[in-house]
Amino acid sequence: MSNAWHEEMQAVAKSGGRVSDRDIADKVRHAVLMQRLPPGTKLPEITLGEVFGVSRSVVRKSLTRLASEHVIDQRPNQVARVRAPSVEETRETFDARRLVEGEIAAQLAGRLSPEALEALERQADLETEAFRGGDEPARIEHSLTLHHLLAEHSPNRVLGGMLTDLVLRTSIVVALYKRSGLASCYQEGQHGRLLRHLASGDAEAARGAIHDHLNGLEALLDLSPREARIDLMSILGHTPEQA
Amino acid sequence: MSNAWHEEMQAVAKSGGRVSDRDIADKVRHAVLMQRLPPGTKLPEITLGEVFGVSRSVVRKSLTRLASEHVIDQRPNQVARVRAPSVEETRETFDARRLVEGEIAAQLAGRLSPEALEALERQADLETEAFRGGDEPARIEHSLTLHHLLAEHSPNRVLGGMLTDLVLRTSIVVALYKRSGLASCYQEGQHGRLLRHLASGDAEAARGAIHDHLNGLEALLDLSPREARIDLMSILGHTPEQA
DNA sequence: TCTTCTTTTTTTGTATACAAAAAAAGGCCC
DNA sequence: GGGCCTTTTTTTGTATACAAAAAAAGAAGA
């Protein structure tokens, strides 16, 4: 294991107390989201267990969980690796999320309690603040929370669960394919516009706001010729961060 | 463990050779789908292991898998049980499936290869045959296969995966809430109509066919006052098939 | 007879040991 | 130097043992 990886994992491990499989999954997921564990990174059970101070049994459960969330790849008799979604899958993920989140926004329009709306607005404000302050990790967190709130408030819990999954998967591919020069994916006023339509109760306008928001986000990605590079990377087993 | 349950599981166990976690999950899922393991049924790890001839390690993995598919409920320190989706969740599942499968059908219209179309038609014919022959389990299998084929052929693999999940969940609630007098949920000519629109390339007609098909199916269910009964059952831990 | 508390049994959570498979390293020949 | 085979090491798959929690059974009292 390389030093960088090990140190990252040490930092990621819970300071004290017992850790559950959920804790480990949370930490690893977050590290992937924050691009501290790049695609292809190996996640051996023993190492993970040592870092978090638990045995393989617990680690195994968390890995299974992460695999079902499409965060890692888990093939029989092989070490789990951080997944590298292709550009094709990226487009498909956005497509699916437009459909699902658009529908949820439409269903939610005009049916949100004042408290829920206020909570959403608070998140939007926090995101803007973090952007103005140049704290991109915080901005991402706040943006994610906003969309997760949307999923939670969905009257249809099944659709809501699907959105939670899609928000995670989109975040991963955004982190992966963001144009290199780009400092932030913040889109001025977009969340505000969505919230206005949700409050006023215009379902189709809310759906449209979601579509525009996601189209804008997808447009900030570099989805051109990397395809081949990524595929070769995973096929040849070339891992960037460790031997 | 009651005799009925144990015998059912014996029957369900693979005849010979080693069994993987996937095998066990497949068998249990199928038994749930065929209503041979009613909601609330306990699935203790040791018993399952004994029946399939493997240790708890393997069983645990299969249970985790089934939980992520929403087939069973798995709470900390409690035995896994076959899930009993509420009527509310049933409606939400249908709603979600209408959205996703409708979109897939629309995207697929006019884009299916002749071979794919032929395979779909073969499944529809097999279903009709099984219905005419009065073999309901076989009819269900063929109907399921048809929708799974649709999911597989989806150009959007992410949406396809979501549909696979939703088809399973719908089947479970159909088995659970089917009106008691009803012999079959077969809907004359519906699959044929869908396939015609898929072949002719009329996207909105294909979407409409899916909507009608699912609405018709939902209408065959008894979604009235049981809500309370089911909830009490799971809350009070009253299990029908075993002590 | 019903309730409540205690004791026993069952069942899951976690760690660990050993076998099998895959990956890596080393040595060999060209 | 580069490719190929053998050996070693690493890593996962599975079974099992023991502790902790939950469920069930039993006993005592009203």
From TrEMBL, chains A, B:
<dbReference type="GO" id="GO:0003700">
    <property type="term" value="F:DNA-binding transcription factor activity"/>
</dbReference>
<dbReference type="InterPro" id="IPR011711">
    <property type="entry name" value="GntR_C"/>
</dbReference>
<dbReference type="InterPro" id="IPR036388">
    <property type="entry name" value="WH-like_DNA-bd_sf"/>
</dbReference>
<dbReference type="Pfam" id="PF00392">
    <property type="entry name" value="GntR"/>
</dbReference>
<feature type="domain" description="HTH gntR-type">
    <location>
        <begin position="18"/>
        <end position="85"/>
    </location>
</feature>
<dbReference type="InterPro" id="IPR000524">
    <property type="entry name" value="Tscrpt_reg_HTH_GntR"/>
</dbReference>
<dbReference type="InterPro" id="IPR008920">
    <property type="entry name" value="TF_FadR/GntR_C"/>
</dbReference>
<dbReference type="Pfam" id="PF07729">
    <property type="entry name" value="FCD"/>
</dbReference>
<protein>
    <submittedName>
        <fullName>Transcriptional regulator, GntR family</fullName>
    </submittedName>
</protein>
<keyword id="KW-0805">Transcription regulation</keyword>
<keyword id="KW-0238">DNA-binding</keyword>
<dbReference type="InterPro" id="IPR036390">
    <property type="entry name" value="WH_DNA-bd_sf"/>
</dbReference>
<dbReference type="GO" id="GO:0003677">
    <property type="term" value="F:DNA binding"/>
</dbReference>
<keyword id="KW-0804">Transcription</keyword>
